[in-house]
Design brief:
Largest sheet: 6 strands, antiparallel
Distance between the termini: 104 Å
Number of helices: 5
Order of helices and strands: EHEEEEEEHEEEEHEEHH
Structural class: alpha+beta
Number of domains: 2
Helix content: 10-25%
Number of strands: 13
Strand content: 15-25%
Mean pLDDT: 77
Shape: globular
Oligomer: single chain
Low-confidence stretches: 1-21, 291-307
Length: about 325
């Protein structure tokens, strides 16, 4: 066979495909590329909200965004993701609409949606999503450093280690990403009052709240440094979300894993025992304890405790 017709010299045939080819998503190597691109589709509004929260945290800002739904009178429905940073003495706050989500199916507000920038006119138009928080008029204060790709996994346990707000900002990003990767596909909420509490919003088959949580307390009154006082690392909730899509995984994979060690500091023995009992009740069906019955002379004809028998039982319980 001549060189012109040899297999090495022949062009490769075009690949044969059947059906729609699965889209391949590139690995995210720049924190600014975590932001969703207008026009892209996502499996659910909650996944898109999570992506925007993670992108905000990776930029070094608090993830102050929420999801509000409002059905329009048209054939489709929309949801809105809004920034909800309150005014403080040091910042003007923010109530901007960050994105408008258009549902693929108006009757399924939890299904596939497409992200669009909110309509703005003329000079009132604000910059793109990735520039929203850093814009001089956004009203946002940076609380942490930019989370770079390929950072080391984070380990957390109760103890005297002091964490700054920047550390907690990073902890929140890792916890949110790790819990969505988890087989339970959990949703993490953060409550900021005197303490900072990370909790799972999931529930088990008995409608009991998930026990997963992280609690950090201030090192002193008014301090902006914290120590970890409580960790419950295991989810007790039922899976509530489908496995992450390939699109979502490109965002989740940007953040390293978070390793939690169970522990509890600063509570009395009584409070600890109550917590253990609550955990056991959540993991095992409740059993009714047998009722002690006194001697025959203290019972009536139907086997119900008489007044004297009931009094004896009470005396035993309080003795």
């Amino acid at each position: 066979m001549s060189e012109a017709t040899s297999p090495e010299a022949m062009p490769s045939p075009a690949p044969v495909t059947t059906g729609k080819a699965e889209k391949v998503y590139e690995t995210v190597s720049d924190p600014q590329k975590l932001w969703p691109v207008p026009g892209t589709r996502w499996d659910s509004p909650k996944d898109l909200l999570l992506v925007m929260q993670l992108a905000t945290l990776a930029a070094g800002y608090s993830a102050t965004a929420n999801l509000a739904s409002r059905v329009t009178p048209t054939a489709t429905a929309h949801a809105f993701i809004r920034c909800i940073e309150a005014k403080t003495p040091n910042s003007g706050g923010c109530q901007s609409t960050l994105a408008v989500l258009q549902y693929a199916n108006a009757k399924n507000p939890h299904g596939t949606c497409r992200v669009q920038l909110p309509p703005k006119a003329g000079k009132s138009a604000k910059p793109s999503l990735k520039d929203h928080h850093s814009h001089p008029d956004s009203g946002h204060l940076k609380v942490g450093d930019v989370i770079q790709p390929n950072e080391k996994p984070m380990s957390l346990e109760v103890g005297p280690t002091v964490y700054t707000l920047a550390d907690i900002n990073k902890l929140e990003a890792y916890a949110r990403a790790d819990s969505r990767r988890d087989p339970h596909n959990a949703v993490i909420t953060v409550v900021r009052s005197k303490d900072i509490l990370f909790k799972c919003r999931g529930k088990n088959e008995n409608d009991d709240a998930c026990l997963w949580q992280i609690r950090l307390t201030p090192t002193s009154a008014g301090a902006k440094t914290y120590t970890c006082k409580e960790i419950e690392p295991d989810h007790t909730c039922e899976p509530a979300h489908p496995a992450p899509s390939a699109h979502l995984n490109t965002v989740l994979d940007y953040f390293p894993s978070l390793y939690l060690k169970q522990g509890l500091i600063g509570k009395s023995k009584l409070q600890q025992s109550r917590k253990i009992q609550k955990q056991q009740q959540a993991k095992a069906p409740r059993k009714r304890a047998p009722v002690e019955v006194s001697d025959d002379e203290d019972e009536d004809e139907e086997g119900v405790l008489s007044d004297a028998g009931l009094q004896q039982l009470c005396d035993k319980l309080v003795s």
